[in-house]
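To make this tangible, we now present a fold written out as tokens:
***
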Amino acid sequence: ASSSQLDTDCSTGILAVNKEVASLGQYCSQLQLHCTGESPNYMSCDGRVEGIAWHANSFSDAIAFRFHSCTHLPYRHPYLNSGACVGNMLATLAYLGASGLAFSQASITDC
């Protein structure tokens, strides 16, 4: 790949990382609104936690990929993207939390 193509990949990647940071910030900032107070709505809260899970996974994958596209360093293990592995673990934990919130709301509303 040419140097200009590598620079374009890096720039595009940085924008993708910024998008994920903004999305994570959006969902995190909504947690207090939807998940606290005298009568929190756990279904609404679980949607925010699920959004965090979704974007945490994409964010960590994007960080790892962009590190390689911007530094032009090869992967040590071509088939292992450690950012994606970390993101999947974080997302799994957040999805478990979101499902717990949904079960809690279901028991409250006799769903």
About this structure: The chain has a mean pLDDT of 79. The CA atoms of residues 43 and 102 lie 5 Å apart.
